[in-house]
Design goal:
Blueprint lengths: L1 E10 L7 H15 L6 E4 L4 E5 L3 E12 L2 E10 L2 H8 L3 H17 L2 H8 L1 H32 L2 H22 L2 H16 L3 H19 L6 E7 L2 H15 L6 E5 L3 H5 L5 H11 L4 E6 L12 H4 L9 E4 L2 H4 L2 H7 L3 H6 L13 H6 L4 H7 L13 H8 L2
Parallel strand pairs: 1-5, 1-6, 6-7, 7-8, 8-9
Antiparallel strand pairs: 2-4, 3-4, 4-5
Organism: Phyllobacterium myrsinacearum
Keywords: Membrane, Transmembrane, Transmembrane helix
Protein name: Alpha/beta hydrolase
Length: 397
């Protein structure tokens, strides 16, 4: 009987969520996924929440999984990067929009946007998304003002109507289209690339040093994996770089999914991040990068090593994910037009077996090295998927 002991460092994306919420989601979706991959799953003990130096929440929990002739114990260390991101959401909406505009202009003037076009044109479309929203708001509010002027012949009324329409449309965009979150996201990316916020950088450095210290304390037989979603990949590369500086003889695992790594790494000012990518790529670390055509917020068909022109380095194992193939038709139809929900599907549970599952990779019987060598999880199964009813019942236990 094979027994696996793991340490997984979890790094979420740019979401204003506390550690407790991320833990609840991980446990809920892992419970949903477990029967699909013929696993039993239970949490060993309660979530322990503390703060790393710098005020970033840290959650520690353990999941025990088992199946035919195998068992695994996975200790998770989850960093609440939302404690860092929350600063951006707490600002005045006008400041959030203006700083986002400055960031977008920076990415154009620096040439980074054009690197997006040559690396993954779909991501370039995502870059244009907030600009399209602002353009639509401007056109519609100006139109409303002109209509009011034609009806009243009073300029003051026209200006008031135009401004009111702009505010109303921006409120709708913030609530329905995540407009302010997107503007915060680009502001954060610019700040990280140019190191404009020493206070935020200090918080990230505390996370990096804390995670590297925990990794260095792991027993030699423990499998160590750093797993990151979206913008969390930036922190993940820095953490592995720091861990390698402490011990470069160990073979670490790196799992990046829906990664926004190139969002910063392609910016000419992000020299420190590119140095970390280079150090990891030239090490013995095993890197799996999961991408999906359906998700407009990841760099589909990219290869960080190739696209950053890193010579004499090992490219990541690229796993292409089709969300349609791991969800039942009803579930897929319910999320496919919500691109934020599609982006989060990388860290949500699945209803059918496929080569990729966030929870099966991090909690299952396959070593990370075996998953990478195969190019993904084994998909062969007598019962390829659990019924929706069975999954729903399991998730409520």
């Amino acid at each position: 009987m094979s027994v696996i002991n793991r340490l997984v460092v979890l790094l979420p994306g740019f979401e204003h969520m506390p550690v407790e919420a991320h833990h609840r989601r991980f446990l809920r979706e892992a419970t949903k996924t477990a029967p699909v991959y013929d696993m039993s799953l239970q949490e060993d003990g309660a979530l322990k929440v503390s703060s790393a130096e710098g005020g970033v929440g840290v959650g520690e929990f353990t999941l025990v999984t088992a199946g035919a002739n195998w068992s695994a114990r996975t200790d998770f260390v989850l960093y609440g990067l939302g404690d860092i991101n929350h600063f951006y959401a707490a600002r005045n909406p006008a400041v959030r929009i203006l700083s986002g505009i400055v960031a977008l202009v920076d990415f154009i003037v620096s040439g980074t946007f054009f690197r997006f076009l040559s690396t993954s044109w779909r991501y370039a479309l995502f870059f244009l998304y907030p600009l399209v929203i602002m353009g639509a708001v401007a056109v519609l509010s100006i139109g409303a003002g002109r209509l009011a002027l034609a009806m009243t012949q009073q300029a003051a009324v026209a200006v008031a109507v135009g401004l009111g329409a702009a505010l109303a449309l921006l409120a709708v965009a913030a609530r329905k289209m995540h407009f302010l979150l997107i503007m915060d996201d680009w502001t954060f990316a610019r700040d990280m690339a140019r190191d404009n916020r020493p206070d935020i950088t200090a918080k990230l450095h505390h996370v990096i040093s804390d995670a590297a210290a925990r990794i260095s304390q792991a027993a030699p037989a423990t499998e160590v994996v750093v797993a990151a979603h979206s913008m969390g990949a930036i922190c993940a590369l820095h953490i592995l770089d720091a861990a390698l500086q402490q011990n470069d003889s160990r073979r670490y695992g790196l799992l990046t999914v829906g990664s926004s790594l190139l969002k910063l790494a392609l910016h000419p000012a992000a020299k420190a991040l590119r140095a970390s990518v280079e150090a990891v790529a030239r090490s013995r670390a095993i890197w799996i990068d999961a991408q999906s055509l359906t998700d407009p917020m990841n760099f589909y068909k990219s290869n960080p090593v190739r696209d950053l022109n890193i010579a004499d380095a090992e490219s990541p194992v690229l796993v292409k994910v089709r969300f349609r193939s791991q969800l039942c038709d009803e579930t897929y139809r319910s999320i496919r037009r919500n691109f934020f929900r599609v982006h989060r599907q990388f860290v949500y549970g699945v209803e059918k077996r496929s080569a990729y599952s966030w929870h099966a990779i991090l909690c299952g019987p396959e070593t990370f090295a075996d998953v990478a060598a195969r190019g993904g999880l084994p998909c062969e199964c007598a019962a390829q998927s659990a019924s929706p009813m069975k999954i729903a019942e399991t998730a409520t236990i």
